[in-house]
Specification:
about 230 residues; alpha+beta; Immunoglobulin-like; 4 helices; 10 strands; disordered N terminus
C-alpha cells in the first residue's frame, strides 16, 4: 500500500525544486522584461517551453513556445526563449508588454508523466502610471547651463577649491606682511619729518634770539661778536 502511494505521488507531483526562478515579474506597458528559470542537471537534455496558464492537466497551457537546440533563440510573436545547457537555465524575454499580457505563465520542462514546471505571475501596469524619469547627477550638470542661461556664474569644483586654499592663505599672509612693513615705514618717515621740522624750528628760534641780543649791544660790541678775532702769535 505504501509503495502504491509513493508511485502515485511520483506520477502526479513534480520534482521538488526541479525548477527555480522568480515567482512574479512586473513591468509597464511597452517595456521589455526578461527572466531566467534554472533546472537540475538531469533535465539538461529535456525539451523546455514557456506557455500561458490555461486549464488543468493536458489543456493547462496556451500559446506554448518550445526552446530550440542548445543556445539557439526561438521567437514567437513578442516572446523569445533560449535554453543554455552551460548555465542550466531557460532565458525568457517578453517585448512590448501590453495590459493583456498580464497573467500566470508556466516555465516548464517536458518529460514523461507530469512535466517539471514553475508557475510565474506577470503584472503589467499602465504606461500612464509610470513615475517620471529622474536625471542623474551627470546629466543634470550637463543641462544646467541650458536651463539657467541667464546666470552664467562659473562653478568651482571642490577639488579646485582645496588646491587654491593654500595659495589664497599664502597670498593673504604676504599681503598682511607687506601692509605691516608699509605702515612701519610710513610711521618712521613721519617721525623723521617731525624731527626735521623741530630742528628747523629750534634753529630759527636760536637765530632770532641771537639777532635780538646783537641789536641790544653797541655797534662796536656787535661788530666784535659778528666778526671773528684773530690772535697773532
Amino acid at each position: 500500500m505504501r509503495l502504491l502511494v509513493l508511485l502515485w505521488g511520483c506520477l502526479l507531483l513534480p520534482g521538488y525544486e526541479a525548477l527555480e526562478g522568480p515567482k512574479e515579474i512586473s513591468g509597464f506597458e511597452g517595456d521589455t522584461v526578461s527572466l531566467q528559470c534554472t533546472y537540475r542537471e538531469e533535465l539538461r537534455d529535456h525539451r523546455k517551453y514557456w506557455c500561458r496558464k490555461g486549464g488543468f492537466l493536458l489543456s493547462r497551457c496556451s500559446g506554448t513556445i518550445y526552446a530550440g537546440e542548445e543556445g539557439q533563440e526561438t521567437t514567437k510573436g513578442r516572446v523569445s526563449i533560449r535554453d543554455s545547457h552551460q548555465e542550466l537555465s531557460l532565458i525568457v524575454t517578453l517585448w512590448n508588454l501590453t495590459l493583456q499580457d498580464a497573467g500566470k505563465y508556466w516555465c516548464g520542462v517536458d518529460k514523461r508523466g507530469l512535466d517539471e514546471s514553475l508557475l510565474i505571475s506577470l503584472f503589467v501596469f499602465p504606461g500612464s502610471s509610470r513615475p517620471p524619469m529622474q536625471l542623474d547627477s551627470t546629466s543634470a550638470e550637463d543641462t544646467s547651463p541650458a536651463l539657467s542661461s541667464g546666470s552664467s556664474k562659473p562653478r568651482v569644483s571642490i577639488p579646485m577649491v582645496r588646491i587654491l586654499a593654500p595659495v589664497l592663505v599664502l597670498l593673504s599672509l604676504l599681503s598682511a606682511a607687506g601692509l605691516i612693513a608699509f605702515s612701519s615705514h610710513l610711521l618712521l618717515w613721519r617721525k623723521e619729518a617731525q624731527r626735521a621740522t623741530e630742528t628747523q624750528r629750534n634753529e630759527k628760534v636760536c637765530l632770532s634770539h641771537l639777532n635780538h641780543r646783537t641789536s641790544e649791544l653797541d655797534p662796536d660790541e656787535a661788530s666784535e661778536i659778528s666778526s671773528p678775532t684773530f690772535i697773532s702769535v
